[in-house]
Amino acid sequence: MKERVKSWILALLVLSSLIESYYLIYRLPGADSAVLSENLYVKTDNMGPEEKVENLLYPDKMVIHMGADKHTLFYPSSTFYNLILNRLKGRGFESFQRRSVQDFDWAKIRQENPGIELSFGAGIPVTLLQRVMQLSPDSLFAGESIDRIWIYSIKNDSKAHAVFFSTRGDIVYEAAKADLTVQDIQQHVDFGKNWTVYTTDNGDYYVPETRVSLIEAEIPSDMYTTEQMQSNLFFDAGSTRYIQEKNGSEIYTDSKRSLQVDQEQNWMSYSDPAALPAGESTPAKDALEAVEFVNQHGGWNGAYRLAATEEGRQERKVSFQQYYGSYPYGSYPIISDGQLQYGVIHLELQQGTVSSYERSLMYVDEGQAVKKVVELPGGEELKAQLAEIGKASPVKDLTPAYVPVVQGEKLRLRPVWRVTLSDGNELTLN
């Protein structure tokens, strides 16, 4: 009898414990909103797939030096670019020696020595570069960011030379051990023999001797809705309030975060100033955090490349540049010309946590693109244009690019030459 009473008492205690737990979870103040937000928060997976950081780390161009002051350029997605880059990814580089950039006669090396020069634009942290190349850096080299890698051979020298350029501009790191032979370098250089010849005065930029063919495309386009972005960026989209600004921008806020939508530019800006810091911040960690944030809040509507990890006064700015194109013409950056913001994703991080996120609301259906081949000027025609432009400020860089133009329900990607000047200004030629 006593055992039966004990069993009943124990069952009652368990039941009362379950009832109490239910009220603690679902009936305490604030619990209703937590349960409601679980239903309101819908991750819009169809906005774009997630991406691995390794697929966003690649050179913006590849310069092939063939000796006798002859050169050619390969761009992302072109056949020889992919072939050479994939081979280099499998080769090891170690025992890095720190040297001054002045220790080398770069003009002579560029003009006389066969080699491959990889350009990484604004630079990439070494700890990220390790994800796509076989590097064994020491602690000093591991803290650097690299904007160029130059692999070359010297006549009557059996050793392959590999030099990594620091973004600081005055320091390079030479790999004393490189898993490459002189024959490997020559084989890679030979891929450029029958390609367009480029010339250069100082190595800053290269001009093709003939016209360059690119694809022009008209692609059906559509827009991500404001509701999609709200459900993707706010934990409880139902708690947001709408504000109309005088300039026509729409602002939505949950009192902590804000989403601003510019309907004319099809552009969104998300801000979370109250984001809790994650701790230690480095260029590599912030880039990884930025990739993960985009994966979770919108995804990638096309092919992107990590373009910059710039450090500001109190934040780090991480940018991803969108590319368009394919075999055999290569892919090139999509740049804005002031009429339309499109082709880039900007994030700001404070102490390792994303506090700002900007991107276009426009997306395209690349499978329905209508394409045609067009030509950009080269040779003396292009040189004359650059000489005229250079009177105001020296030309620093020249690269093919696409300018986006909205035409009804289609997005036209128009090929241009993007000219970057020494004073930082950019302009286009077509």
SSE diagram, text form:
Elements: H1 2-26, H2 31-40, E1 61-65, E2 71-74, H3 79-89, E3 92-100, H4 106-112, E4 115-125, H5 126-129, E5 134-136, H6 139-142, E6 145-153, E7 160-166, E8 171-178, H7 182-190, E9 198-199, E10 207-208, E11 212-223, H8 226-233, E12 241-244, E13 250-253, E14 258-262, E15 267-271, H9 283-296, E16 303-311, E17 316-326, E18 330-333, E19 344-350, E20 353-360, E21 362-364, E22 370-376, H10 379-389, E23 395-407, E24 410-421, E25 426-429
Parallel strand pairs: 3-5
Antiparallel strand pairs: 1-2, 1-4, 3-8, 4-6, 6-7, 7-8, 9-10, 11-21, 11-22, 11-24, 12-13, 13-14, 14-15, 15-20, 16-17, 17-18, 17-19, 19-20, 23-24, 24-25
Protein name: Regulatory protein YycH domain-containing protein
Domain Regulatory protein YycH: 3-421
InterPro entries: YycH (IPR009996), YycH/YycI_2 (IPR042274)
Description:
There is one protein chain. With 430 residues, this protein is α+β, with helices and mostly antiparallel strands. It has a domain at 53-210. 24% of the residues lie in helices and 39% in strands. It is built from ten helices and 25 strands. The strands form four sheets. Strands 12, 13, 14, 15, 16, 17, 18, 19 and 20 form a nine-stranded antiparallel sheet that branches. Strands 2-1-4-6-7-8-3-5 form an eight-stranded mixed sheet. The longest helix is centred in the N-terminal third of the chain and has 25 residues, at 2-26. The model is unreliable at 17-45 (pLDDT under 50).
